[in-house]
Amino acid sequence: MKHILKVVAAAICCQWLSLAANASEGLWIDVRSATEYEQGHLPGAINVIHTEIGYAINSLAPDKNQSIRLYCGSGRRAGIALQTLENMGYTKVSNEGGYSELINSQ
Question: How far apart (Å, rounded) are the C-alpha atoms in residues 30 and 23?
C-alpha cells in the first residue's frame, strides 16, 4: 500500500506540467517496473506498474472517457493493464506496444 501511495503522490506532484503539455496526446502511462522506467521512458509518461494500475488510475484519470495510452517492454503488460482499465469502465484506452518500438518510431 505504501508503494501505491508513493507512486500516486509522485505522479501528482511531479508530472502535472508535462502532462498538461501532452494533454492532446492523452495520458501516457508506462506500466513497466520502476527500474525499467528509470532506465528510460517517454517524456511526460507516468510510471504505474501494471499490477497496481487499478488502484492508482482514479487519482490520475478520474474521467473514464479520457484518452489513456499504455506501453511497457513488449506490449504484454500494457495489454493486461488495458483489460483492467476497460473492466473498470475506461473507454479510450490503447496499448501502444513496447518502449523500444515507440522510441524507434519517433
Answer: 16
- The packing angle between helices 53-60 and 76-87, to 10°, is 60
Give the residue carrying C-alpha cell 494500475.
Answer: 53
State which amino acid sits at residue 19.
Answer: L
Average pLDDT in the chain: 86
| Residues marked as catalytic | 72
Q: Which residues, in sequence order, are bridge partners of residue 93?
A: 68
Tell me: the pLDDT tens digits for 10-47?
554 444 444 444 456 899 999 999 999 999 999 999 99
Confidence (pLDDT) at 29: 99
If you write DSSP's letter for every residue of 43-91 in order, what string do you get? TT-EE--GGGHHHHHHHH---TTS-EEEEESSSHHHHHHHHHHHHTT--
DSSP 7: H
CATH code for the structural domain at 2-104: 3.40.250.10
